[in-house]
Write a structure and sequence with these properties.
Elements: H1 7-16, H2 20-25, H3 29-33, E1 39-40, E2 43-44, E3 57-59, H4 76-80, H5 85-101, E4 106-108, H6 131-147, E5 155-161, E6 173-176, H7 179-197, E7 201-204, E8 208-209, E9 212-213, H8 219-225, E10 233-236, H9 245-250, H10 264-272, H11 278-294, H12 313-326, E11 328-332, E12 344-348, H13 386-397, E13 400-404, H14 409-417, E14 421-427, H15 445-455, E15 459-464, E16 479-482, H16 490-498, E17 546-549, H17 558-564, E18 581-592, E19 599-609, E20 615-624, E21 635-644, E22 649-657, E23 667-669, E24 674-676, E25 681-687, E26 695-700
Parallel strand pairs: 3-4, 4-5, 5-7, 6-8, 6-17, 7-10, 12-13, 12-14, 14-15, 15-16
Antiparallel strand pairs: 1-2, 8-9, 11-16, 18-19, 19-22, 20-21, 20-25, 23-24, 25-26
């Protein structure tokens, strides 16, 4: 407990004073985190040394889950749509503070994935399909959780490593992927998040990678630690451990929840057989203890959990701002922003109201769904609905509001026909354990929106979803807003956007395909994967592993649509505003550092607000590699969000460094086991989305 010593020294002192049995305790969540007990799920452990802390884990990619009295923040995909690292930091710091005040000091989050299919049930838990955007926002979340509340230490847990891209057969499937694709597409966001966020823990995933379960895969030591530079502790997902010796020797430090494979009996047996050594046990225990010490858990005891609400006015304001910045204006024919003149407003759809319609209400799409106990992951009891917020705003201007639950499309159309403007809300639910069956809205929503749009003189569709949406009714609507799972402050935030009190600035963190058939995982072998009989259904009476073929390689997300020449419904990075932005004066200067010898690009360009409304714009920089690289499409290599007054111009200055963890100019060469920069001409493009890039320049790099 001598804080003048380094975390490494303190961890070494503790473990040198520990018996082998006491070291075993650190290898499983329950005995590691409850030092006062000795029996866990019927498994007996030695008494722990004094001064070890009580540690409590909480699930939390979106907020403090399954806990009352906390803020229901918007889903991570909505945070991804903000393209705002500072906002992600602030939200994560607020979540961390609430976790600590509720007696929890490890947050199982943030999560990142690579968006291989928009059908993945956990898409809403992640920051989108792009490695750079996901990695940088995850890094901000990690730092917010671990650094945002001095005096209230909480550790983050980055998950799920790696190639965990579907819920179907997640416990019994193998992601079969070549090394270059694994490093460039699936490892890369983790590499960025580790380098820029420095998380204390990482969670290995359920799936196999090339036939070996993630939590016993040599990738843990050979790549995650050696190549990506991670030096915290690696924990399993719940039930993701399948062995004792193979897991421990591969680098798994801690089994989540209760002891199953890391019991004292099984560890003793593996030692006796020579399958593991005491050094393996000591290394795993050291990684856990050092992170607990380094993260402050030894030195700041958890408080008694607060009985009431720990959600503050500041946190609610932050949740509202996150919705405002994360909502994406996909289409606007001029109906938005709404005027403040008295009018009749129709609000239609079950998730716009707190009153349930066939079991569906605003709580349904407040956060991701959960099939056990609570129907959603966050405490949405404080949700302010769209209907409530519209009525409050309408009262200020003398407007009339008429609500219809949307259960009968023709009745809703009649209501819409009598209104001056109609706000119709479509939704679908998604979450852990199941993938989406399609990308259509639930509850006969397509028929509802189509009927309303045909009858209304002005229809604004608001979508509450966790992933992309097909929109057969798009042409019939005047405006479309994607608000994702927007949490408890959805109503006030969306009203501010509808009336123009806040100018929309969200940008899509994922591509919205026109049709599911346009996505990269087109064949059953690619998704959901097949068995030895060639079917997507396992042979009867077997426990066969589903084989998922990542044959599309690097062509995922926006790179797929670019390389295949497919026009998406809405491109990655797309998002409209109530003002206009002009990109101009791109200047690029390559240089080589005298000390480092690494190449960098000095990229400067201007963004001007040419409209009459203040607004924010996320400027995006993309790079197309030389043909010799064999790289599909173009890659995002930089972005910055700026806020401009009408007529204001700002210069964006980004330094794109070859030595940065996203390896902007390089590809992975499996033969040399290294990143290499191809020869030839690189093309730099700058603009407001991956398909709207008015500035272009070519450059040669060494």
């Amino acid at each position: 407990m001598d804080t003048s010593k380094s975390p490494d020294e303190r961890a070494r002192i503790l473990l040198d004073a520990s018996s082998l049995g006491q070291k075993y305790r650190w290898l499983v969540e329950q005995p590691a985190n409850d030092p006062t007990a000795t029996t866990f799920s019927g498994v007996q452990y030695e008494a722990q040394l004094p001064c070890t802390p009580k540690v409590v884990y909480t699930d939390g990619p979106d907020g403090v889950r399954f806990t009352s009295g906390v803020t229901a923040f918007p889903a991570p995909i909505a945070l991804g749509a903000t393209w705002n690292r500072d906002l992600v930091f602030d939200k994560s710091a607020a979540q961390s503070e609430e976790a600590f005040d509720k007696g929890k000091n490890v947050v199982l989050g943030p999560g990142i994935a690579s968006g291989r299919t928009p059908l993945s049930g956990r898409t809403a838990e992640y920051f989108g399909e792009d490695s750079l955007l996901s990695g940088r926002l995850a890094a901000s979340a990690i730092r917010g959780i671990e650094e945002g509340n001095p005096g209230k230490p909480v550790l983050s847990n980055l998950k799920h490593y790696v190639a965990n891209e579907q819920e179907i057969s997640r416990n019994a499937s193998s992601s079969n992927v070549d090394e270059r694709t694994l490093r460039e597409a699936y490892d890369l966001p983790f590499e960025i998040a580790i380098a820029e966020g420095d998380p204390e823990s990482i969670m290995c995933s359920y799936n196999q990678i090339n036939g070996i379960y993630a939590c016993e895969n040599p990738l843990l030591n050979d790549t995650l630690r050696s190549k990506l530079g991670f030096d915290g502790y690696i924990m399993s997902d719940f039930g993701a451990v399948h062995s004792t010796a193979p897991s421990l020797t591969a680098g798994l430090d801690q089994e989540l929840n209760r002891p199953i494979y890391y019991t004292p009996a099984l560890l003793n047996q593996a030692l006796a057989k020579g399958e593991i050594t005491e050094e393996h046990v000591d290394n795993a225990a050291f990684n856990v203890v050092r992170s607990y010490i380094r993260g402050g858990l030894f030195d700041t005891p958890l408080p008694t959990p607060a009985a009431g609400s720990v959600s503050t006015a500041e946190h609610k304001d932050l949740a509202r701002r996150a919705v405002e910045e994360g909502t994406v204006l996909l289409k606007n024919d001029g109906v938005l922003p709404l005027s403040s003149k008295p009018k009749t407003i129709a609000v239609i759809g079950p998730t716009a109201s707190k009153t349930p319609t066939n079991g569906v209400s605003a709580l349904t799409a407040c956060s991701m769904k959960w099939p056990f106990g609570s129907p959603h992951t966050l405490d949405c009891s404080s949700v302010v609905t769209i209907e409530e917020a519209v009525r409050e705003r309408a009262a200020l201007e003398g407007s009339t509001v008429v609500f219809d639950d949307g259960s009968n499309p023709q009745r809703a159309a009649t209501v819409a026909a009598a209104a001056d403007v109609t706000v119709v809300v479509g939704y679908y639910t998604s979450g852990e354990f199941n993938d989406l069956p399609d990308l259509r809205v639930d509850g006969n929503g397509d028929a509802l929106i189509s009927a309303v749009a045909a009858a209304s003189p002005a229809t604004v569709a608001i979508l509450q979803t966790g992933s992309a949406v097909e929109m057969p009714w798009l042409d019939a609507t005047e405006a479309v807003l994607e608000s994702w799972y927007a949490g408890e402050q959805q109503g006030p935030a969306l009203v501010n956007l509808l009336w123009g009190d806040v100018n929309p600035s969200g940008k899509l963190p994922m591509t919205f395909p026109a049709s599911l058939t346009d996505t990269p995982t087109r064949t059953p072998a690619q998704y959901p994967g097949i068995y030895s009989n060639g079917s997507t259904t396992a042979p009867a009476g077997t426990r066969e592993i589903r084989q998922v073929d990542y044959s599309e390689g690097l062509a995922i997300g926006h790179k797929w649509y670019d390389s295949q020449g497919i026009d998406p419904l809405f491109a990655f990075g797309h998002g409209l505003s109530y003002t206009d932005f002009e990109y101009r004066n791109l200047r690029i200067k390559p240089s080589t550092g005298k000390k480092t010898g690494t190449t960098s690009l000095d990229v400067k360009f201007q963004i001007k607000n040419t409209g009459k409304t203040a607004g924010a714009e996320a400027g995006q920089v993309y790079l197309t590699l030389p043909d010799a690289a064999g790289e599909p499409g173009k890659r995002l290599i930089g972005f910055e969000k700026v806020t401009l007054k009408p007529g204001q111009t700002t210069q964006v200055h980004l330094v794109i460094d070859a030595a940065s963890p996203d390896h902007p100019f390089s590809t992975w060469d499996s033969a040399s086991d290294a990143w290499t920069t191809p020869r030839g001409t690189f093309t730099v493009e700058v603009g407001g989305s991956s398909r709207e890039l008015p500035l272009i320049s070519e450059v040669a790099l060494r």
